[in-house]
Each structure stands twice: as C-alpha cells, then as structure tokens.
C-alpha cells in the first residue's frame, strides 16, 4: 500500500478537490433578491456565489442576508424583493483561494468558512472547495495511516 506523509498530504494541490464552476449554483450581478432567494431555497444551500457577466467572483449572498434586508418592524416585507439587487445585499469581503494553492491553505480557510471560492489571477470563478470534500480526503488519509 502507498502511504503519504502528512507533510506531503498538506502539499497536494487543491485543484484535485474543487467542485467545478458549472456544478455550482450561483447568481449574477443585477439579479434581484427574489431570484436569489428562489435559487437558495430550491438548492437548499445557505449561501451561493455572485458572479459578473465575465464569470468573475463579486461576492456571496445568503438567505439570512436577504431576510435581514427585508425585515420590517412589524413583518417581513416580501414585496420589496423584486426591487432589491443582489449587488446591494451580498457580502463582498470574502475569503477566496487561488487555484494553484495547496491542501494546507484550504484547510486553514475552511476552519472559519463552510466553503471557499476558487479563483484564478483574473478573479475568474473556477469553483468551490467545501468542508465536506476536504473532510472526506482527511478521513481517507487518516484511515489509511492506521
Ligand atoms: P458542504 O460542505 O457540501 O455541506 O457545502 C458547504 C456549503 O457550500 C453549502 O452550504 C453551500 O453554501 C456551498 N455549496 C456546496 N455545494 C454547492 C453547489 N453545488 N452550489 C452552490 N453552493 C454549494
């Protein structure tokens, strides 16, 4: 059996573990909050990436951010959803990882984030690295080391 040292394991390129962009649910700049909420609800994800027309990453939007935005004093103002743009609600200050990074960097970032968006030099969105995928790899590695 081939065993990998933990040092080598941490140096594996993240490229092998990315969920590619075409499989990732997203919304675009200019989309309204109603559309974003629909995508989030249908997919069951708590947050998804926001991309521009050139597929560059601009931020993340979550159902919690949207609900927060339409929370009135007496009730939730659903009627405002069509007029709100994701651009004005999304979180712009987000953790990203470059596609050439290694497992260790991904692991560090995933401690505080359920998933990390993967980008290239032009900020083009290439996919995501999720906690689930990284944990699966760690499980494989730890079990084989026993
Ligand atoms: P997981 O580790 O698979 O539970 O994924 C963690 C988070 O990553 C989810 O809650 C979503 O916000 C995001 N995510 C995972 N897979 C996708 C996907 N295919 N499209 C969009 N977001 C995703």
State the name of the first-level CATH class: Alpha Beta
Q: Describe the biggest sheet?
A: 4 strands, mixed
The string of secondary-structure elements, in order, is HEEHEEHHEHEEH
Strand order, largest beta sheet = 1-7-6-5
**What structural class results from the helix and strand content?**
alpha/beta
Number of helices: 6
Number of domains: 1
Mean pLDDT: 94
Unique ligands: adenosine monophosphate
Strand residue content: 15-25%
What level of helicity do the residues show?
A: 25-40%
If you had to describe this structure to a student in words, what would you say it looks like?
With 146 residues, this protein is of the alpha/beta class. It has a single domain, classed as CBS-domain. It contains six helices and seven strands, in the order H-E-E-H-E-E-H-H-E-H-E-E-H. The chain has a four-stranded mixed sheet. Adenosine monophosphate binds next to strand 3, strand 7 and helix 6.
Task: Give a quick set of tags describing it.
four-stranded mixed sheet, binds adenosine monophosphate, 6 helices, alpha/beta, 146 residues, CBS-domain
In short:
This protein is an alpha/beta fold.
List the helices and strands and how they pair.
Layout: H1 6-10, E1 19-20, E2 27-28, H2 33-43, E3 47-51, E4 57-62, H3 63-69, H4 86-89, E5 96-98, H5 103-110, E6 115-119, E7 125-130, H6 131-144
Parallel strand pairs: 2-3, 5-6
Antiparallel strand pairs: 1-7, 3-4, 6-7
Bound molecules: adenosine monophosphate.
Residues 19, 23-25, 45-48, 114-115, 128, 130-132 line the site of adenosine monophosphate.
């Amino acid at each position: 059996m081939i065993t990998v040292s933990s040092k080598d394991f941490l140096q594996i390129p993240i490229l092998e573990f990315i969920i590619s962009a075409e499989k990732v649910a997203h919304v675009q700049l200019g989309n309204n909050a109603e559309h974003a909420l629909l995508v989030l609800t249908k997919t069951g994800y708590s947050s998804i990436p926001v991309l521009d027309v050139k597929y560059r990453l601009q931020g993340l939007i979550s159902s919690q951010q949207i609900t927060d935005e339409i929370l009135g004093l007496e009730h939730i103002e659903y009627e405002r959803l069509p007029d709100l743009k994701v651009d004005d609600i999304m979180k712009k200050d987000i953790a990203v990882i470059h596609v050439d990074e290694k497992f260790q960097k991904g692991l560090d970032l995933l401690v505080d984030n359920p998933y990390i968006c993967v980008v290239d030099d032009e900020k083009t969105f290439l996919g995501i690295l999720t906690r689930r995928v990284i944990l699966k790899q760690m499980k494989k590695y730890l079990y084989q080391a026993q």
